[in-house]
Structure formats: structure tokens, C-alpha cells
Amino acid sequence: MSSEKCPDCEALVSVPDDAVNGEIVSCPDCGLDLEIALAGQERTVKPVVLEKEDWGE
Amino acid sequence: MKVSILGGSGYAGGELLRLLINHPDCKITRVTSQRFAGEPLYRVHPNLRGRTNLRFDDKSLATHNDNDLVFTALPHGKSAGLVPQLLDQGTKIVDLAADFRLKNPEAYPEYYHTKHEHPELLEKAVYGLPEIHREDIRNAKLVAVPGCMATASILGLAPLVKTGIVEKEHIVIDAKIGSSGAGAGPSMGSHHPEREGGVRPYKIVGHRHTPEIEQELGQLNGGNVKVAFTPHAVGMVRGILVTIHAFTRGQVEKKDVWKAYRGEYGNEPFIRMVSDNKGLFGLPNPKNVIGTNLCDIGFETDAHVNRLLVMSAIDNLTKGAAGAAVQCYNVMAGLDERTGLDTIGLHP
Questions:
Q1: Which residues of A touch B275 (CB under 8 A)?
Q2: Residue A53 lies in a domain
Q3: Which of B70, B81, B130, B150 could share a disulfide with B209, CB 3.0–4.6 Å?
Q4: What are the tens digits of pLDDT across the range B289-302?
């Protein structure tokens, strides 16, 4: 288990060792949904961007 | 430690009994009430039936006092005259009324319509908010438990005022309080048909908790703090929610607000940050802290008007009165502050 900083509130967010790319975790303090991004040994979290219902049309 | 409760028939006195009866370090020797003298406690506080054989008595504590500490839960203005004699006997006092909360004696005629009987004791009394005055409480002989709405307001604002995040002379506090805050004595305002189903603003300017809030926040920041405080009587029995509108000079980032709260409250046993904005339970709601000594705090930034919005919720009888008194007692006795207070709230 590693920890990454929430980009919104800077709380430490736990990222499981077996996390997969695109997995969603929730910040324990502010509740922001975060997407885990894996690139080699590097692990980052970024806010989830939700698709809207009108698909931008 | 041997303790007595002076004025144990009110709601704050009853809550104090509920908490102290289970307290492992506390032996209640006497509980006084002039009105109910001779009656068992459960005739007034039915939740205590089967938990204690004590009866109310009306003997003067000044002449029958062998306690280490006395909790006074009398109406405002009644404890000021009794405290000097108790102090002379070497008894520590935790006063749940307003008699020793304010440092400025001139504030008493203005806000409590009475001249203070012992203004020389005001500087000696410690304001009983451990989150701010823990070290002073530890060595105090006389502790003044804060007002309930003042507690919710001060705890919501303290880190923001201390760090200078918000403008200190432009703070608006909107409070909602349940009917037990009006005390056990019946009145038109607490009469069920009048209270239930309504949201009644009262004392909309100049409420007596205003000077407490300004006194305590002013000490944190070395200057004058001004708050516009307006309470509302609502239908719930217990609970307070204060919604605080504070303003910033520029845009404030959420992470800086989180940093201020974490810095001040990171190790506090009774403060929970409830600010995840997710689902039904992501912001403070007094329903979630009823019967506990917790204060739930949440916030949101509003860049549209440079506003920082803070919500703070407590149970007015617990963290707003008796729970705070027990927390202070624990500090004075050198105990873990959670002793006798480590309860989980009800849900739903």
C-alpha cells in the first residue's frame, strides 16, 4: 500500500499495491473520486472526470 | 474523585448525571435541587432509573462540603455568589452557567442584566474549551463551561481566525438550536404547539453568546473580532447547527483551509472534519452527534463572493454543556479526555 496526496485537500490517499490503471479511489477527507494512473513504477492520482449525459452534443 | 452537582434537576444537570454515573474516576456524593429535594433522581431524569440510588437534597454545599470538585448547573447568576466560599474551602469548580465566562465585568449588565457579584474572580476563571485552553484548564480552580452556541461557533472559526484566512470583522453566524437549549422550565417559546413545525428567529441582535465568541476568537488573533450572530429556535429537542459565513480578501484554496483545520484539530479527540460533500452524510448534521461530545465541522469555498462557508454541529447538552464539563474535569484530573465520553452516536 502506498499513499498519494489528494490534489484538492492534500490528504493522504491509500493506493493498494495491486491497484490497476484507471481504478477509482475516494479521498478519505474530502470525498473526491480519484483515478489511479500507473506508469511503470510511478503511481499518481487525478480527479475523475465524469462523462455528461448529453455527450457534449 | 468525589464530586457533587449543585442544581441537578435541569437538562444540563441530568446530562451531567448520565455521563458521570458511568465515569470510572468519579463518585457522585450529592445532587442538589430545592424543588425536588427528597425525590429520587429518576423522578426527574427517568433515564437514570436503576442506575443510582441517589436522591436530590437541598442542603447548602457551603456547610456540607467534602468534595474534591463541584459542578454547578444552576441558572445564570446563581453560582457567582456561591463560588468564593467553595474556592476558600479548596474545592475546584466547573460552572455550567454563564457567571464566569466573560472577562469584562461590564459585559454582564449589558448581556445578562445584572451586575457581577465577584468581578475579581473573572480573570481567575478559565474558559472551559479544552481545544483552546487545555493547559490553563489543567491547573484551574474555577472553569467556566462555554455557552452551547458559542462552542459550535468558536470551534468552527478558531483555526480560520488564528491563521488569518478570514476577515476578522466580517463574520456572520446563523444558528439553529433545539428546544432543550431553552432549559427544563416551561415557557411559551418551548411549548410544543408553538415550537414544533416552526423556525423562529429570536434575539436576532445582541444575543448573549456574542461577547463570548468575540472574546475567545479575539484572543487567538491578537485583535478585535466582530461577529453578527443570530439564533433560530427549531423543532428538534437536542442539537445545534451553526452556519458561518466568513469572507476572505481573495480566493482561498481548499487545501489551505484543510491545512488550517488539520493544524489545529489534528489530534483533538472530539472534533471530526465532516466535509466530503458526498452523499447524505458528507456535511455536519446535529442528528449525527446527539448524545456524544463530538463537534462535526465542514466547509466549502465560494469564489463567487470570496466567502468561506463553515458548518459546525454539536449536541447542545453534551459538547454544549455537560460533556464539555466532563471533558474539563478529565483534563483537571489528569485523565484521558475520552474517559466517560467515548460514546458512539445513534443512527438513524
A1: 29-30
A2: no
A3: B150
A4: 999 999 999 999 99
Residues of B tagged active-site? 148
Q: What residue has cell string 443512527?
A: B347
pLDDT reported for residue B341: 98
For the cut 90, the answer to whether the pLDDT of residue B11 exceeds it is: yes
- C-alpha dihedral over B198, B201, B203, B207, to 10 degrees? 110
In sequence order, what E strands does chain B have?
A: 2-6, 27-32, 56-57, 69-72, 92-95, 126-127, 142-144, 171-177, 200-201, 227-233, 240-247, 271-273, 295-302, 307-314
Strands B171-177 and B126-127: what pairing?
A: unpaired
* pTM of full prediction above 0.90: yes
- The mean per-residue pLDDT over the stretch B135-151 comes to 98
Contacts of A25 in chain B (CB under 8 A): none
CB B172 within 8 A of CB B327: no
CB contact (8 A) between residue A31 and residue B259:
no
Going along B48-179, which residue ranges are E strands?
56-57, 69-72, 92-95, 126-127, 142-144, 171-177
B38 sits in the region (left: phi over 0; alpha: psi -120 to 50; else beta) called: left
Q: B148-316 is classed in which CATH architecture?
A: 2-Layer Sandwich (3.30)
Cα angle at B48 between B47 and B51, to 5 degrees? 135
A30, A32, A50, best to mutate vs chain B, most B CBs in 10 Å: A30
Task: Please name the amino acid found at residue B60.
Answer: S
Inter-chain Cβ pairs, chain A and chain B, closer than 8 A: 24
Residues in chain B: 348
Class at the top of the CATH hierarchy for domain B2-124: alpha beta
pLDDT at position B19 is: 98
Work out the minimum CA distance from B73 to partner chain A, whole angstroms.
Answer: 37
Under a CB-based contact definition with an 8 Å cutoff, are residues B116 and B93 in contact?
A: no
B205: pLDDT confidence band, cut at 50, 70 and 90?
very high
The CATH number of residue A31's host domain is 2.20.28
Q: Which residue of chain B comes nearest to A33, CA vs CA?
A: B278
